[in-house]
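Session log. Operator J.P. requested a structure for one protein chain; no other inputs attached. Running the standard single-chain path with C-alpha cell output.
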Amino acid sequence: MGGGCRTTGVNRTGCMFCAFGVHLQTEPNKFQQMKVTHPQIYDYCIRDCEKGGLGYGKICDFMGVKYK
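Structure written below.
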C-alpha cells in the first residue's frame, strides 16, 4: 500500500486547534509540538486576534500553559 498518506507522529483526535485539556498535557504539549511540525499554523493560532490570528497566546498565558 504505497499511497500518499503520511503521519507527523503526533497523537491527536479531532481538530488540531482545539485547546481542550491542553492544561493537563505534559511538555511538549500540543502547541509546542505544533510549533515544530506546523510553524505557520502555530503562528496563526498564537497570534493576537487584532493581528489576524486566533489569540491562543493570550488564552494560554491566562491558563498558565506554556506554548513557546
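Operator note: Residues 27-63 form one domain.
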